[in-house]
Design a protein that fits this description.
22% helix; globular
């Protein structure tokens, strides 16, 4: 696994040919959001899901910009010569749309899963599961032991993934000081936690 890509097929095979470990997940490759075009694609995916994106580029508070934000592209449709921009992956063999986005802010051994969204036309196809699997693997590989997140609409989804509801005040100070906690997500958002070392 590298810092800029992650496959959700369980093997990280170069050809993406293996079957996903989780039957409810789809095979994707994560590409780091690192250009104006890829940030625009991530913001568009979040907007289409009515999720905040104001701090993605560090415009509101640079201390709370995610350490890593990824666009998710279908692995089976991704040629090796492709690049992801503007919500699509461009290659000599055609265009492939980014199907989702996910982010991780890391503060030592704790992390904040944020900005997880799937293109509305692809809801229910396992991409949310695949994105979360990949973000959790990335977090664990970077030494994160416990993940937190806020959600107004997907608490049941995350609880099925092993997250447990906790009071916002129970989150570590570094997490509580993020833009997600202080301004972007409403007080009514559910706070959830998952320990990766269990």
């Amino acid at each position: 696994m590298t810092d800029d890509t992650d496959r959700t097929d369980g093997s990280n095979a170069a050809d993406g040919s293996s079957v996903p470990d989780n039957p409810l997940s789809a095979s994707i490759t994560l590409r780091v959001v690192d250009s104006s075009a890829s940030y625009a694609a991530a913001e568009q995916l979040l907007s289409r899901n009515d999720l905040p994106s104001g701090d993605l580029r560090g415009e509101t508070d640079t201390t709370s910009t995610p350490a890593t934000l990824w666009l998710a592209v279908e692995t089976a449709a991704l040629p090796s010569d492709s690049t992801v921009e503007s919500g699509e992956s461009h290659s000599e063999s055609g265009d492939i749309r980014a199907v989702g986005v996910g982010g991780l802010e890391q503060y030592g051994t704790v992390g904040l899963v944020r900005s997880v969204a799937v293109h509305p036309e692809r809801h229910g196809e396992g991409y949310g599961t695949s994105i979360c699997d990949a973000v959790e693997r990335q977090a664990a590989s970077r030494g994160v032991e416990t993940l937190y997140l806020l959600t107004t609409t997907a608490a049941a989804f995350f609880e099925q993934r092993g997250y447990e509801p906790v009071a916002r005040s129970d989150a570590p100070e570094a997490i509580r000081e993020t833009t997600q906690f202080t301004s972007l997500c409403p007080d009514a958002a559910a706070c959830l936690r998952k320990r990766l070392d269990e």
